[in-house]
């Protein structure tokens, strides 16, 4: 929660996002809330399809059109609701205040323009008074900052002439060019080998350390979250199932889904012959979401109410929240024991 005066840097409140599909309208993100402070690194984790990327794209107001729309909630950036911003006002936020990087850099890079031209364009968009020479110098400095050797040569190249790791660095350079307040990194290192992965994460965190930028790191990789994040939001089937500080989540997980996820991380002690524990059953499909807890069918601890009452986020301890009827059940037991 916010420890300073004034609103948090970012507060997402009860976000809902719907897609129009052949089965009718489905809610891909349903009642998602979280907060982010300057300099904080927030991890968003959960199985494929749980709504991580849709949440991130909503923050940028870059949801695919016309098939999707934000149906409810607020996205408060420094207290102002981005959902009230005009398209023009949003363009000034994107890249300058909130930037996003993707798993596949070609999503963000234009294949028919040189790297130099693309970085210069990010400056032109947000600093229209900047001269050509100034933009060139700033672009060279930015490429050097993201660890690109021989930046002058790289500026003349097209994205396909660079390695995957280099393309990732260029995309990060573009995203960081205007020193945004928030960087959203959606699976930024999944396609890269382990050494380059570590270098890219170091780069992001060096930048965070020097500018105080906040980071939202979206990943399947709980190890990456444990190593790099301050807080974590666990999503399941379009909803938040648990949120806590990283230390609390990894040492005292509450939600049965989080516990299962943590058990499925390979440990160093694991031998190649031992199968990793998996979570039996499947994530419910969007068009047939259960009315109660979305994890109930796969949960070993499900209570009768889990089938027909949707659990709301409840406080487990200070700064630790879980959407699980067991929170209430535990409280009742605790009170009974007194
Ligand atoms: N263009 C679309 N049309 C219809 N449904 C979509 C579309 N894009 C996403 N969805 C649905 O929204 C849900 C959330 O998708 P999202 O990409 O946010 O998941 P994710 O958690 O980021 O998954 P992954 O880790 O695989 O990237 C999924 O069920 C997906 O099928």
TrEMBL record:
GO term, biological process aspect, one: peptide transport
Main location, first listed in the record: membrane
SMART domains noted in UniProt: AAA
Subcellular location: Cell inner membrane
GO CC terms of this entry: plasma membrane
Parts of the chain that traverse the membrane: none
Keywords: ATP-binding, Cell membrane, Membrane, Nucleotide-binding, Transport
Annotated family: Belongs to the ABC transporter superfamily.
Protein name in the entry: ABC transporter ATP-binding protein
Native source organism of the sequence: Desulfobacter hydrogenophilus
High-level lineage: Bacteria, Pseudomonadati, Thermodesulfobacteriota, Desulfobacteria, Desulfobacterales
């Amino acid at each position: 929660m916010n420890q300073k005066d004034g609103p948090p840097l970012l507060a997402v409140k009860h976000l809902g996002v719907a897609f129009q599909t052949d089965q009718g309208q489905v809610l891909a993100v349903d009642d998602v809330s979280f907060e982010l402070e300057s300099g904080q690194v927030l991890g968003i984790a959960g199985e494929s399809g749980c709504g991580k990327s849709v949440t991130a794209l909503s923050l940028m107001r870059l949801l695919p059109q016309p098939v999707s729309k934000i149906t409810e909630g607020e996205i408060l950036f420094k207290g102002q609701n981005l959902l009230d911003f005009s398209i023009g006002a949003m363009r000034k936020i994107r890249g300058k205040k909130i930037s996003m990087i993707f798993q596949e850099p070609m999503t963000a890079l234009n294949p028919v323009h040189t790297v130099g031209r693309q970085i210069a364009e990010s400056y032109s968009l947000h600093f229209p008074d900047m001269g050509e020479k100034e933009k060139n110098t700033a672009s060279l400095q930015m490429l050097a900052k993201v660890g690109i050797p021989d930046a002058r040569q790289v500026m003349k190249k097209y994205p396909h002439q660079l390695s995957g790791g280099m393309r990732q660095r260029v995309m990060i350079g573009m995203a960081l060019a205007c020193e945004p307040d928030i960087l959203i990194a959606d699976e930024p290192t999944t396609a890269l080998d382990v050494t380059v992965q570590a270098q890219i994460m170091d780069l992001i965190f060096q930048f965070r350390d020097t500018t105080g930028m906040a980071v939202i790191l979206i990943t399947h990789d709980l190890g990456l979250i444990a190593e790099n994040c301050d807080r974590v939001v666990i999503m399941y089937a379009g909803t938040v199932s648990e949120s806590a500080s990283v230390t609390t989540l990894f040492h005292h997980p509450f939600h049965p889904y989080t516990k299962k996820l943590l058990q499925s991380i390979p440990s160093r002690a694991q031998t190649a012959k031992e199968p990793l524990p998996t979570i039996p059953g499947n994530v419910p499909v969007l068009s047939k979401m259960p009315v109660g807890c979305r994890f109930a069918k796969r949960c070993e601890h499900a209570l009768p109410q889990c089938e027909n009452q949707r659990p709301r986020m409840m406080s487990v301890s200070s700064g630790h929240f879980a959407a699980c009827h067991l929170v209430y059940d535990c409280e009742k037991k605790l009170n009974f024991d007194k």
